[in-house]
Specification:
With 448 residues, the protein is an alpha/beta fold. The protein has three domains: 209 residues; 91 residues, Translation factors (Elongation Factor Tu (Ef-tu), domain 3), CATH 2.40.30.10; 123 residues, 3-Layer(aba) Sandwich (Rossmann fold), CATH 3.40.50. Helix content is 52%, strand content 14%. The chain has a five-stranded parallel beta sheet, sandwiched between helices. The protein has a three-stranded antiparallel beta sheet with strand order 1-2-5, with no helix packed on it. The longest helix has 34 residues. It is elongated and about 80 Å long. The N terminus is likely disordered. It is found in: Membrane. This is Putative ferric reductase. It is a multi-pass membrane protein. GO terms for molecular function: 2 iron, 2 sulfur cluster binding; flavin adenine dinucleotide binding; metal ion binding; oxidoreductase activity.
């Protein structure tokens, strides 16, 4: 793409992220109203407790569909909202799903216990002997299990591959819940209209999930046939990997985005890593620049030219698509400079780059940044030293220091990428300086 194509986007009534969020919320609200209408017309149970159980069952189905949509990796949503935010919403809505399922199951047991004048335990065991109910119990058990291992305290102690494998059980819960829904609930099959509605909405969600998570990645990899074209050591701990393939000019990647990379011949299929592009796509090659933090990333230096690569993406909303101002500030910390370096190559207008590292020796791609800044008339500030050391303490991202480095910072878009603590500190300072939220762009490049 040319520089003109990446100039300031045409101003519209709503920013892209807001438009996508409202579209998603509107779609959910419309379906929520439909579900309420179906409940009011055909949701009455055998007693009042079972009626409440049906209410929660209907909402559990709808929340599950929203959960799946958020992680379907639909390009239109991802480019506008970003995978990090969609994943964060998926996590919190997941706990809503958990409690909705638990309440549905609890009221079912209590309702039938009241109806049969039996104890809740005996009623639960009796329901487990009914195929439709057993499917629902199994689906609920899977959802509860996944919710437990997704709790922050437990999740941090699990390797990503283990957590991901357990999380895939949600798809089993999906299939079990679908069958349970159509075998058990009169609300789902009460009228031809309700049956058509549920089949239609479930079909749309499942098709979106399969298309975004399976069909699109396979199609792109078969089309582009990515392979390693060069491996370049940038420093003792940092390596750049260049990739080439077929028809890369048709790959809809932008500076600032990332892919989920798999190197099957290097460390197996299940090991996947999100790495940002460290250079703007030029239609011929892609480049990632990786810091060694473990055996897998360290071993990328040993990749052989010609090694096939499987990439999912591009993902992320950390792009110039979200610009609102002519001027831009790019703030990077450590290896978080990689998408910032790519954005610098693409952006037009006045640009200031703030690059935070402990020492000059740790500044990855510094020569490239200097060359790009000189060529584009951008200002580059290398901020070194340990935070809090010295008198006065070294706090480069304190509001006062940010304003000193960029006096008109409130009139620019700010892109921030770095360690979470640094990103949070920068965002807090920007808000203290009165920078509008819509001008702050920060994204976490991670799988979960």
């Amino acid at each position: 793409m040319t520089a003109a194509e990446h100039s300031l986007p045409r101003r519209t009534a709503l920013p892209p992220a807001t438009l996508a969020t409202l579209t998603l919320a509107g779609f959910f609200a419309v379906n929520l109203l439909i579900v309420w209408a179906l409940f009011l017309t055909s949701g009455e149970g055998k007693n009042s407790i079972l009626t409440v159980a049906k209410f929660f069952g209907l909402h559990a189905a709808l929340v599950m569909m929203l959960q799946l949509t958020l992680v379907a990796r639909l390009p239109w949503l991802d480019r506008r909202i970003g995978m990090d935010r969609l994943t964060r919403w998926h996590r919190w809505i997941g706990f809503t799903l958990l409690w909705t399922v638990v309440l549905h199951a609890t009221f079912v047991v209590l309702g039938y216990a009241t109806l049969d004048r039996a104890s809740p335990l005996r009623t639960f065991l009796a329901l487990a002997g009914v195929p439709a109910s057993l499917l629902g119990i199994c689906a609920a058990t899977v959802i509860v299990t996944v919710a437990i291992v997704s709790m922050r305290a437990i999740r941090r102690r699990l390797p990503y591959e283990v957590w991901h494998g357990l999380h895939l059980l949600v798809y089993c819960a999906l299939m079990l819940a679908l069958v349970h829904q159509f075998l058990e609930g009169t609300t789902f099959t009460a009228t031809p209209l309700s049956t058509a509605y549920w089949w239609t909405i479930w079909t749309l969600v499942v098709v979106a999930l399969v298309a975004g998570r399976i069909v699109l990645p396979i199609h792109r990899n078969l089309r582009h046939r990515l392979r390693v074209s060069a491996v370049v050591p940038e420093s003792p701990e940092v390596t750049s990997v260049y990739l080439t393939g077929r028809d890369l000019h048709r790959l809809p990647a932008r500076a600032g985005q990332f892919f989920i990379w798999r190197f099957p011949g290097h460390h197996g299929w299940w090991r996947a890593n999100p790495f940002s592009l460290s250079a703007a796509p030029d239609g011929r090659t892609l480049r990632i620049t990786v810091k060694a933090v473990g055996s897998a990333t360290r071993g990328l230096r040993n990749l052989q030219v010609g090694t096939p690569v499987f990439a999912e993406g591009p993902y992320g909303a950390f792009t110039s698509m979200h610009r609102t101002r002519e001027g831009t500030v790019l703030i990077a910390g450590g290896v978080g400079v990689t998408p910032v370096r790519a954005l610098l190559e693409e952006l037009t207008g006045p640009v200031v780059v703030l690059y935070r590292v402990r020492s000059v020796q740790e500044a990855v791609l510094l020569d490239e940044l200097r060359s790009l800044a000189a060529a584009r008339g951008a200002r580059l500030h290398l901020l070194t030293g340990r935070t809090g050391v010295g008198s006065p303490p070294n706090r480069p991202f304190a509001p006062r220091n940010l304003r000193s480095l960029v006096p008109d910072i409130a009139e620019r878009d700010i892109y921030v990428c770095g360690p979470p603590a640094m990103t949070e500190s920068v965002v807090a300072s920007l808000r203290e300086l009165g920078v509008p939220r819509r001008q702050i762009h920060a994204e976490r490049f991670a799988l979960a």
